[in-house]
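ping. complex inputs:
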Amino acid sequence: MAEGNGASNQKTMTIIVTKGTLDWAYPPFILATTAAAMGVDTTMFFTFYGLPLLLKKLDLKISTLGNPAMKMPMMGMHMAMPNWISAIPGIDSMATGMMKNMIKKKGVASIEELREMALEADVKMIACQMTMDLFEYKMEDMIKGPVLGGAATYMENALKSDVNLYI
Amino acid sequence: MADKMLDAKGLNCPLPILKTKKMLNEVPRGGTLEVLATDPGSVADMASFCRTTGNELVESTKDGDVFRFIIKHVG
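pong. complex structure:
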């Protein structure tokens, strides 16, 4: 569909990435890589706990705390993870291990893999400067590709985008 | 016979789509790509991917647990 006046009709999307646990890292990277594959010009803005997803070495974990909807398949059943269970020492690393096993077994990509594919597909990544200062991260700790920016940088992108997501 | 072949069996969302997109780049315009997948979600996703990118989903069939797609590189 031609839009006239020479304006590009390429669709654009931005995602604000605010969470950095193993489970919550998936939605932004899955959507960004898929959007890019569908020809969408995609920008990811990494802020607060989402920022460490840009670190060279990822060590992602899940938490059983405050996640009552989390039910892990176990021996043909689904085991709930009530809040009190997170008081048991080592439970989070156990749950993380279980999750990583399931991810491998079910042919789900790793976050490292999706992140690599996002960069390959020219997904733009912005690292939140304020979060870098706040949590004392350095650009040399991060993968190559992201640029630094702030709220205004994000807004400039968001204002001209077709889809803006906050995850 | 399709011009290119992609075995995406055992892969889960979004890998079948991402690999399809990569492989389509290697198929000349007008050529076809055959994709095999076991992800049941790929049936709806492959159709959406083709509609959005302007490629033609020539065939979408199922043989046992394996889904087979033929995509014509148009877009």
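The longest strand of chain B covers residues 56-63.
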